[in-house]
Amino acid sequence: MKRLKQKLKQKQNKPLNLLLIATLAIATSCQQSNKQSADVNAPLLSDTTSLNNQPIFDDPEGEMDSLYRAYNYIYTPELEAAVQSGNADAMQMLASMYAYGIGGVEPNRKKAFQLYRHLAELGDANAQAYIGYMMLYGVGPIEDAEAGLEWLEKSANQLCPTAFYYLSNYFEQTGDTANARVCYQNAIKLGLPHAAEE
Q1: Buried-most residue among 28, 59, 131, 189 (CB within 10 A)?
Q2: What are the tens digits of pLDDT across the range 106-120?
Q3: In terms of pTM, does the model score above 0.90?
Protein backbone atom coordinates (compact mmCIF):
# COMPACT_ATOMS: atom_id res chain seq x y z
CA MET A 1 0.00 0.00 0.00
CA LYS A 2 2.92 2.30 0.73
CA ARG A 3 4.14 1.99 -2.88
CA LEU A 4 0.68 2.89 -4.15
CA LYS A 5 0.56 6.03 -2.03
CA GLN A 6 4.02 7.11 -3.22
CA LYS A 7 3.12 6.57 -6.87
CA LEU A 8 -0.15 8.48 -6.49
CA LYS A 9 1.63 11.37 -4.82
CA GLN A 10 4.10 11.57 -7.73
CA LYS A 11 1.29 11.55 -10.33
CA GLN A 12 -1.10 13.82 -8.43
CA ASN A 13 -0.55 16.89 -10.60
CA LYS A 14 -0.53 15.07 -13.95
CA PRO A 15 -3.67 14.81 -16.12
CA LEU A 16 -5.54 11.55 -15.76
CA ASN A 17 -6.79 9.36 -18.59
CA LEU A 18 -10.41 8.20 -18.55
CA LEU A 19 -11.12 4.53 -19.21
CA LEU A 20 -13.27 3.00 -21.93
CA ILE A 21 -17.01 2.78 -21.30
CA ALA A 22 -16.82 -0.97 -20.95
CA THR A 23 -14.22 -0.67 -18.21
CA LEU A 24 -16.37 1.76 -16.26
CA ALA A 25 -19.40 -0.46 -16.62
CA ILE A 26 -17.54 -3.52 -15.38
CA ALA A 27 -16.30 -1.62 -12.36
CA THR A 28 -19.79 -0.44 -11.46
CA SER A 29 -21.19 -3.97 -11.17
CA CYS A 30 -18.90 -4.64 -8.68
CA GLN A 31 3.38 -7.13 -16.62
CA GLN A 32 3.38 -10.73 -15.60
CA SER A 33 4.11 -11.34 -11.96
CA ASN A 34 7.63 -12.28 -10.95
CA LYS A 35 6.12 -14.21 -8.10
CA GLN A 36 3.03 -16.14 -9.21
CA SER A 37 0.98 -18.31 -6.94
CA ALA A 38 1.09 -21.99 -7.85
CA ASP A 39 -2.71 -21.89 -8.07
CA VAL A 40 -2.54 -19.60 -11.11
CA ASN A 41 -1.28 -22.58 -13.08
CA ALA A 42 -3.77 -25.00 -11.54
CA PRO A 43 -6.40 -26.61 -13.77
CA LEU A 44 -9.41 -24.40 -14.34
CA LEU A 45 -13.04 -25.37 -13.94
CA SER A 46 -14.32 -27.77 -16.54
CA ASP A 47 -16.75 -26.39 -19.09
CA THR A 48 -19.55 -28.38 -17.45
CA THR A 49 -19.23 -26.82 -13.99
CA SER A 50 -22.49 -25.01 -13.21
CA LEU A 51 -20.68 -22.02 -11.66
CA ASN A 52 -18.86 -21.57 -14.93
CA ASN A 53 -22.11 -20.75 -16.75
CA GLN A 54 -22.98 -17.80 -14.51
CA PRO A 55 -21.96 -14.25 -15.45
CA ILE A 56 -19.14 -12.66 -13.48
CA PHE A 57 -20.62 -9.18 -13.74
CA ASP A 58 -24.34 -8.40 -13.63
CA ASP A 59 -26.18 -6.59 -16.40
CA PRO A 60 -29.76 -6.72 -15.04
CA GLU A 61 -31.12 -3.98 -17.29
CA GLY A 62 -29.16 -5.06 -20.34
CA GLU A 63 -27.16 -1.81 -20.54
CA MET A 64 -23.87 -3.49 -21.40
CA ASP A 65 -25.51 -5.75 -23.96
CA SER A 66 -27.22 -2.73 -25.57
CA LEU A 67 -23.96 -0.78 -25.57
CA TYR A 68 -22.04 -3.60 -27.21
CA ARG A 69 -24.72 -4.17 -29.82
CA ALA A 70 -24.93 -0.42 -30.56
CA TYR A 71 -21.24 -0.54 -31.53
CA ASN A 72 -21.77 -3.86 -33.33
CA TYR A 73 -19.59 -5.62 -30.79
CA ILE A 74 -20.96 -9.12 -31.21
CA TYR A 75 -19.39 -12.52 -31.43
CA THR A 76 -18.27 -13.40 -34.94
CA PRO A 77 -15.79 -15.87 -36.41
CA GLU A 78 -13.65 -12.83 -37.31
CA LEU A 79 -13.56 -11.78 -33.65
CA GLU A 80 -12.50 -15.28 -32.63
CA ALA A 81 -9.80 -15.25 -35.32
CA ALA A 82 -8.52 -11.90 -34.04
CA VAL A 83 -8.36 -13.31 -30.51
CA GLN A 84 -6.47 -16.38 -31.73
CA SER A 85 -3.98 -14.15 -33.56
CA GLY A 86 -3.25 -12.29 -30.31
CA ASN A 87 -5.19 -9.04 -30.89
CA ALA A 88 -5.45 -7.51 -27.40
CA ASP A 89 -8.51 -5.38 -28.21
CA ALA A 90 -10.36 -8.44 -29.48
CA MET A 91 -9.35 -10.38 -26.34
CA GLN A 92 -10.65 -7.60 -24.10
CA MET A 93 -13.92 -7.46 -26.02
CA LEU A 94 -14.48 -11.22 -25.98
CA ALA A 95 -13.48 -11.50 -22.32
CA SER A 96 -16.12 -8.89 -21.44
CA MET A 97 -18.70 -10.73 -23.54
CA TYR A 98 -18.04 -13.95 -21.64
CA ALA A 99 -17.92 -12.13 -18.29
CA TYR A 100 -21.38 -10.63 -18.84
CA GLY A 101 -22.91 -13.16 -21.21
CA ILE A 102 -23.55 -10.51 -23.86
CA GLY A 103 -22.86 -9.93 -27.54
CA GLY A 104 -24.27 -13.26 -28.61
CA VAL A 105 -22.36 -15.54 -26.21
CA GLU A 106 -23.41 -17.35 -23.06
CA PRO A 107 -21.60 -16.36 -19.88
CA ASN A 108 -18.45 -18.40 -19.35
CA ARG A 109 -16.27 -17.64 -16.34
CA LYS A 110 -13.52 -20.00 -17.45
CA LYS A 111 -13.11 -18.40 -20.87
CA ALA A 112 -13.38 -14.86 -19.47
CA PHE A 113 -10.75 -15.67 -16.87
CA GLN A 114 -8.37 -17.18 -19.42
CA LEU A 115 -8.60 -14.14 -21.69
CA TYR A 116 -8.28 -11.64 -18.83
CA ARG A 117 -5.35 -13.57 -17.37
CA HIS A 118 -3.52 -13.53 -20.70
CA LEU A 119 -4.04 -9.77 -20.97
CA ALA A 120 -3.04 -9.28 -17.30
CA GLU A 121 0.20 -11.15 -17.88
CA LEU A 122 0.89 -8.83 -20.81
CA GLY A 123 0.58 -5.87 -18.43
CA ASP A 124 -3.00 -4.71 -19.13
CA ALA A 125 -4.03 -2.80 -15.98
CA ASN A 126 -7.77 -3.34 -16.43
CA ALA A 127 -7.36 -7.08 -16.95
CA GLN A 128 -5.14 -7.20 -13.86
CA ALA A 129 -7.95 -5.56 -11.87
CA TYR A 130 -10.53 -8.06 -13.14
CA ILE A 131 -8.29 -11.06 -12.46
CA GLY A 132 -7.56 -9.68 -9.00
CA TYR A 133 -11.26 -9.27 -8.28
CA MET A 134 -12.11 -12.74 -9.58
CA MET A 135 -9.36 -14.43 -7.57
CA LEU A 136 -9.92 -12.39 -4.41
CA TYR A 137 -13.64 -13.15 -4.21
CA GLY A 138 -13.64 -16.56 -5.88
CA VAL A 139 -15.99 -15.54 -8.68
CA GLY A 140 -13.75 -17.09 -11.28
CA PRO A 141 -12.33 -20.55 -11.71
CA ILE A 142 -9.46 -19.93 -9.27
CA GLU A 143 -9.87 -18.57 -5.75
CA ASP A 144 -6.65 -17.23 -4.24
CA ALA A 145 -7.02 -14.10 -2.11
CA GLU A 146 -3.29 -13.45 -1.84
CA ALA A 147 -2.72 -13.65 -5.59
CA GLY A 148 -5.87 -11.58 -6.15
CA LEU A 149 -4.53 -8.79 -3.97
CA GLU A 150 -1.18 -8.94 -5.80
CA TRP A 151 -2.94 -8.48 -9.15
CA LEU A 152 -4.99 -5.59 -7.76
CA GLU A 153 -1.84 -3.93 -6.43
CA LYS A 154 -0.14 -4.25 -9.84
CA SER A 155 -3.18 -2.69 -11.47
CA ALA A 156 -3.38 0.11 -8.91
CA ASN A 157 0.32 0.83 -9.44
CA GLN A 158 -0.66 1.63 -13.04
CA LEU A 159 -3.32 3.99 -11.64
CA CYS A 160 -6.28 1.90 -12.75
CA PRO A 161 -9.43 3.28 -11.07
CA THR A 162 -11.14 -0.12 -11.20
CA ALA A 163 -8.36 -1.61 -9.06
CA PHE A 164 -8.76 1.16 -6.49
CA TYR A 165 -12.50 0.55 -6.45
CA TYR A 166 -12.07 -3.18 -5.79
CA LEU A 167 -9.38 -2.50 -3.19
CA SER A 168 -11.65 -0.01 -1.42
CA ASN A 169 -14.36 -2.67 -1.18
CA TYR A 170 -11.84 -5.16 0.18
CA PHE A 171 -10.50 -2.75 2.80
CA GLU A 172 -14.01 -1.80 3.83
CA GLN A 173 -14.94 -5.44 4.34
CA THR A 174 -11.82 -6.07 6.41
CA GLY A 175 -12.52 -3.04 8.61
CA ASP A 176 -9.62 -0.92 7.30
CA THR A 177 -11.69 2.23 6.78
CA ALA A 178 -8.68 4.53 6.36
CA ASN A 179 -7.32 2.62 3.36
CA ALA A 180 -10.86 2.08 2.04
CA ARG A 181 -11.41 5.86 2.02
CA VAL A 182 -8.08 6.52 0.28
CA CYS A 183 -8.85 3.95 -2.40
CA TYR A 184 -12.37 5.33 -2.97
CA GLN A 185 -10.93 8.84 -3.33
CA ASN A 186 -8.31 7.61 -5.80
CA ALA A 187 -10.95 5.79 -7.85
CA ILE A 188 -12.94 9.03 -8.08
CA LYS A 189 -9.88 11.13 -8.99
CA LEU A 190 -8.94 8.65 -11.68
CA GLY A 191 -12.30 8.94 -13.42
CA LEU A 192 -14.67 6.50 -11.73
CA PRO A 193 -17.57 8.69 -10.54
CA HIS A 194 -19.54 5.65 -9.41
CA ALA A 195 -17.16 5.37 -6.46
CA ALA A 196 -18.43 8.71 -5.13
CA GLU A 197 -21.77 7.08 -4.37
CA GLU A 198 -20.02 4.53 -2.20
Answers
A1: 131
A2: 999 999 999 999 999
A3: no
